Amino acid sequence: HRAKTRKQAVFRPNNRKSSHRKQVMAQNSFFQQMEALLDANPVPPSEWIEYYKSMQPEVLHYHNHNDDSMPELIRNPSPARIIELALRYEGDTANLTSTGALAVRSGAKTGRSPKDKRIVQNDASKDNVWWGPVNIPLTHQAFMINRERAIDYLRTQKRLFVIDAYAGHDKDYRMKIRIVCTRAYHALFMRDMLIPCPEDELNDFVPDFVIYNAGTFPANRYVDGMTSSCSVDLNLERAEMVVLGSQYAGEMKKGVLTLMMYKMPMAGQLCLHSSATEDMRTGETTLFFGLSGTGKTTLSADPRRLLIGDDEHVWTEKGIFNIEGGCYAKCCNLTEEKEPEIYRAVKYGAIIENVVLDETTHEVDYDDLSITENTRCAYPLSHIPNAKAHPVGQHPNNVVLLVCDAAGVLPLVSKLTREQVIYHFVAGFTSKLAGTEMGITEPQPTFSSCYGEPFLMMHPLVYANQLADKLEKHGSDAWLLNTGWLGSTGKRCPLKYTRAIVDAIHSGELKNAQYGTDTVFGLHYPLNVSGVPPEILVPDNNWDDKVAFKAMQKKLATQFVEAFKKKGFADTVPPEVLAVSPKA
């Protein structure tokens, strides 16, 4: 019985007696696609099928019946099937938690490796890409060497998982994504994070973009452009991504976001590193922008609002839509009391990364960060009770820029003018939190344009101008929300106060509030917010040493100005935007 079950999950069309001719033809088409994908030839994806028809007419027939050299191809398996295989073949790095989630280890890499990301510099895209430390160019030849290395490794495996899914809930703009990977962990992760292709659409599924995840095999450091044994390479013209030397699943998720950051502006739409929620009664929506650790996922998990998505969205002429089919939340010090929706989402079908389990009960110790501070959980939207069934929404009424100020000098919340929105969106100040990237062990101030610089493909002003136009056209209110440290206390602002501020934004309370002004940053902050001690709303009240406050304030203002100049923004933004920069 087990053997039969396994065979049914494998899409190798070898049943000559099948009466389901249409299904067999569909499986043939899939197998033909996969044979093309797993062949290290230079033919671009758009020519896969024609290549095999004209150059290798016997390939399909031969492999259908006689060839055992192809790995077992497990296409779009159910979560139950993936978990079964994970426990069977990855038992040393996979286990079940007491709530039924699949606990996994990602190996040496427990965060993204942005310094190892490469973009192939081709004629068609070279004038559109923002080249530099974010998008490091790679030659076509070096990409093809890495691609062949990845494919050679994939073909040596006994089994491969193939996940066919969509990126984007709007059919007018969605992308068809195919992930080819060796680990069950990666298959379940991307099944959770994307939108699995329905079974009745698989027959006609031809990918727009393919991810070869050979992350369990290292890159060759002697290939031109490589700086380590890890390499994450994106080729826009071939519509392919190759992962070598990193088992951290977040590389695939952010690879899809990077793709959308290129494709959507080219189509005239705005791709955003943001979360989104919707008022259950009015349908009004809010976007939260921010880097990892600033609170996007946490603040979007609000039981009083519908969740549209927690991390990646596109703002079109129709409204907003979620790119993903799931959420990816930080689990560091997670408690049911502080974040009940996320805590309860860690159940069967979810994946939890790099956590420590009790050996007897398999309960997760969320306070044990001995493996990494970047412990995370991936789960489908359906694990959130108030997730919107069809995660699209109307044009946002509120846009919230999230920052995590570890210096403790910015106001907790500020109402932004149009010019301030552009300035702060382009500047993208926050503090990198421990664990979100390899080597980050304590908060570090950083300036990440558009609150998602590692994923930008075009110059930040492309996205900033699009955002400014949409804010003006739709009359959205904009806010700067600081989820960081309360002055010199060394403690982060309690989540209950941050939630109270968000409630005041949604209720309209802050529109009629009295405001004070920060003379250095020019930010206008409310003097009273329901549920928040008024004294902490004024930044210098959180410092016992006012001289130290002024010094830290000046230091941060200087960092703003220097970062803006260093990236060339001071010479490119309009004068009215530059005028709102901090007074260093």
Strand pairing plus helix content: what structural class? Answer: alpha/beta
Give the helix proportion (percent range): 25-40%
Query: Mind telling me the C-alpha Rg?
Result: 24 Å
Based on Cα principal axes, name the global outline. globular
Number of helices: 15
For the termini, the CA-CA separation is 73 Å
The amount of beta strand, in percent, is 15-25%
Describe the structure.
By secondary structure, this protein is of the alpha/beta class. Helices cover 29% and strands 22% of the residues. The protein contains 15 helices and 29 strands. Strands 1, 4, 5, 6, 7, 8, 9, 10 and 11 form a nine-stranded mixed sheet that branches. Strand 15 (312-315) and strand 16 form a beta hairpin. Helix 2 (21-37) packs across helix 3 (48-54), helix 5 packs antiparallel against helix 7 and helix 11 (418-427) runs antiparallel to helix 12. The longest helix is centred in the C-terminal third of the chain and has 21 residues, at 546-566. The protein is globular. The protein starts with a helix and ends in a 6-residue tail after the last helix. Residues 1-22 and 51-66 have low confidence and may be disordered.
